User: Fold these one by one.
Assistant:
Number 1:
Amino acid sequence: MNNLVLNQNSIYTYRKSVNGLSIRVSLQTKNKFEALRVTDNVTSLIDLAASNDPHIVRSIIYASINKYMPTFRQERLEKVQSLLGINLTDKGELLSVIIERFINEKIRLNAWAEKTLLVYKVIYQDLIDLIGDKEIQSISNQDAQMVKKALQRLPSNKNKRAQYRDKTLTQVLKMTVLDEHLMSVRTINTRLGCYLEMFKWCSMNGYAKTNVFEGLLLKDNRNTRNLRLPFSPSDLKVMFRALANSHITKGWQYWLPILALYTGARLNELCQLQYQDILKVNGIWCISITDEGKDQYLKSYASKRLIPLHNNIIELGFLGITKNCNVKTHRIFPELTLRNNRYSHTPSKWFGNLKKKHLENSEKKSFHSFRHTFVDYLFNKLKLQGNPLVKVLLGHTDKEITSGIYGSSFEIEDLNDVIQRINFSEYGLILTK
């Protein structure tokens, strides 16, 4: 007890005289029991060391303090937790549990198409592989930054490349990945966007305090308008003139370009059309872009929509094509075969060859350019830029659009008004049967 004194702040101090030198060290506690435990340990160690060297004695005192302080803190914490009846050290549930809960909610809300669900499961599993299955609240901004850096060093389509396929992400990160194999900025941002969305959901639902992936998206310095260009009026005339002069043997070769131009639909959305997807709504003929039929796929839940048919398409006889539907599959274009869960492989290759043959400077143009042409017409000719009707027709997500026509608050008449105002004859384009 002679070695233990209280200072003016009621904190216990260990005091000892060694070779005429007075050593005083704060024990960093006001608890007498804690102070005695440290003092007893110091006395035992000094006796064991059998040294009167002041430096050794001081080191022994500090070592004892460092040894017991974590124990004291834990004991104090447990006492408070017992009194309050709560766990103050809880960092939340494991990341894997939260991811499963997040995905299950998306499934209940039909927010993702089946193929999208499979892709996102891989993306979220990659997050676990990169930072470990940690408690959700222990995941830090440093973890998120590490994920961002790791994605910039990983290959795209890892499982499709033999040299990476059977390796873990950790193993791949130790390899030198060729520049041409690395993920694009768009792919990296897609993944970061997935993590951003999930952690936003975590914050909203009380699983995490902050969104550690906020503000991490990469800047894409590419000119996105030049990635895939729309067709110019002269391009359209050249392409449809070439089609008219070609020996077309398949119905899809005639109809897919026309449908794409007047609906803005994606190639596979059109390739997978079935008999029941051509229907009348309030007296208006439409095509239904859906994933309800066998082997039908949508990019996202927002892609599910109705698109009114332009009068030109009806006048060209499209409604009669349903008579040629395959009896077993009810598909509009039965000649197209499924490959990698898509029916668009053959048409995409066919059109690629066609445009290379007839269009100059066609490198940045593809079948998808019909969709860009459709959008450009709505924006530039009909002055609909910023109009939510455009997002409905294209199948893009808009937080302001609620329930109604497959996720739209607009009447089919509103959409039909936009479609019927399209007039590609302004471009000198004349379509023939």
Number 2:
Amino acid sequence: MGILDLRGALVALLLASSVVAHGGHESVPEGAAVSKDPIDSTLWIHMILMGFTFGIIFPLGMVLGIVRSRWHVPLQIVGTVIAVVAYFLGHAHKGRQFGKNVHASFANLLMLMLVVQVVIGLYLKLHLSKGIHGRIRRFFVVLHGVLGKAMPIVSWTQMLFGGIAANGFCQGDHLGQCLAHFIMGSAFIAYGIMLTILLLVGQYWLRRTGRSQEFFDSLVIAAWGCVNTFTEHRWGGPWVHNDLQHTTMGIVWWCAGLLGIWMSRKRNGRPKRNLIPAIVILLTGYAMSAHPQTLMISTMIHSIFGYTLMAAGFTRIIEIAFVLKDKNTVSLDGSDPNSFQYLPPFLLYASGFLFMGATEEQMQLLHDAGITHVSYVLILYSIAFILFLFVNILLHIYAVHAWPNSAKPSAHSRSSSTTDPVQDSTFINGHARSASETQQVHDAEAFELQGLISDEEDEDVPGNRNHVMGPRKAEDEESAPLVGKEASSA
């Protein structure tokens, strides 16, 4: 009953606050989305707390929940308390007032998701398994996981709505191009995040599917191309503005996507890498770099966006063809990617932020404020760096809990068949060993080598032709988590 009372109280508070949220509309000028008043400190605190909670605490809590960390529940409780406080601060502010907008409406849905998530989490924490609880527990476990993994996506959407509502953007004739920029920009960032996940922790899943990464990339590209082909132009009406360019880009996407799907398998049905998705990204960047604009700053931002996207496609081609040489990973277990492999995902992050920051209203605002495109591009790249860092931190937390052995100093000793003597004389983060420490390492290696040679001489006698290193090599291959599982599945 306590849980039901808590849920009822939270729902009542949400409904009451939604009524309060409708106040203040009379101060908004006719035909405008926001008043001309500045944003007050209360609303700034609301935005900072909400961004911290839904942008950092809840994604971190999601990862801790996946790895079943004891810090999952305390962190989620702290995040929920901050979110509830920030929610009411958003309805208690003075200063700038807002008309009816999607951010205010979507906030109620987001908080309702949070309430359901908290209630289910508290129910599961009671560990009730007798009677009907045993039959419905599995359903609530799945629902709790789905809501938790969907929360970052919904939170991202709400934060975008918040930025749009705060400035009164995407109104009237600007709505169409505004949606295109934010949807496509978010898609590029999501693609970069997926590439990062597959690069760092997703190789075993990819091998289990029996498909190459380009199969899934090409499938999404083909589907997205079909949507763009029939939605970028109002059929039956005149071709205006950039309708033709957007439609032809959609045609290229689904044509290339179908080719990429076909080329993602060998004759024997085994998965095969290909360059088609990278070429599509490169062509899209080329088209966007020459996109005609009305303002000079908008032209420059779109050009840099196009060049960044072209660089993402070009570096992806280099990665597949020359770094990986059509393989899935550089190391045996996929836990030690080449440093060059981080470049294509990051460039997709940067491309997404550049495109989301290039709407007509944003460009007009920058033009009126006298801000140069160089300063703006550096700010957007800085945001891309921060997001890339945060995603890598989350994946690191997941990896060290999912595969504890991979975090040990000797974890990558079998990942590479060759060793670099310069790297052998350094510690983590590039700190060099002293001459005496290096000599100790070399002496130890010489001692081990001498022992192996003596063992080999003892074993190499008539009646025993088995080489001592033979079974050791097989044992090492079995100990590699991905290779061993792949061999057993084959």
